[in-house]
Amino acid sequence: MAASNLSALDEGFEIRSRLLPFTLEESRDYIEYHLQRAGGSAAQVFTPRAINLVIYHSGGIPRTLNQACYEALWVGRSQFKEKVDLESAGMALVNLGLVKEEPPSFS
Q1: Which CATH architecture has domain 21-95?
Q2: Which of 27, 32, 82, 100 is such that its CA lies 20 to 30 A from the CA of 48?
Q3: What is the crossing angle of helices 48-58 and 24-37, to 10°?
Q4: What is the pTM of this model?
Q5: Alpha-carbon Rg of the chain, whole angstroms?
Q6: 59's torsion region: left (phi>0), alpha (psi -120 to 50) or beta?
Q7: Helix-, strand-, coil-residue percentages of the chain, each rounded to 5
Q8: Is 97 left (phi over 0), alpha (psi -120 to 50) or beta?
Q9: How many other β-carbons are positioned within 10 Å of the β-carbon of residue 89?
Q10: How many Cβ atoms sit within 10 Å of the Cβ of residue 86?
Q11: pLDDT digits (tens, 9 = 90+) for 47-105
């Protein structure tokens, strides 16, 4: 093919798409998938209330879920906790600026 026939490709492509945030169940599955790839599971690493808090404040956005989970794991580990609990998850969310102050505990 002659180079003149490919000149349109030199202009480049622009594709825009908008992905919707994950639902609650999709967020759980997303976290579970990544923890399984690392050799664990959500139940081994997070308490149910902690994972609910992280999912709620992430807004279902994968990048934010990753950041919140990573920070929660870091905070929990620094506190020598076996599992990330509500307190550790709350501190992680504060550290990331996802909440302004430590959220109240959910019963």
Answers
A1: Orthogonal Bundle (1.10)
A2: 100
A3: 120
A4: 0.78
A5: 19
A6: left
A7: 60, 0, 40
A8: left
A9: 30
A10: 21
A11: 999 999 999 999 999 999 999 999 999 999 999 999 999 999 999 999 999 998 755 55
Residue with token string 């905070």: 75
Count the residues in the chain: 107
- At 91, list the tokens: 């501190």
Domain locations in the chain? 21-95
**What is d(CA 88, CA 75) in angstroms, rounded to the nearest whole number?**
6
Nearest to 62 by CA among 107, 19, 104, 17: 19
Query: The dihedral of CA 70, 71, 74, 75: what is its sign?
Result: negative
List 46's β-bridge partners, or say none: 84
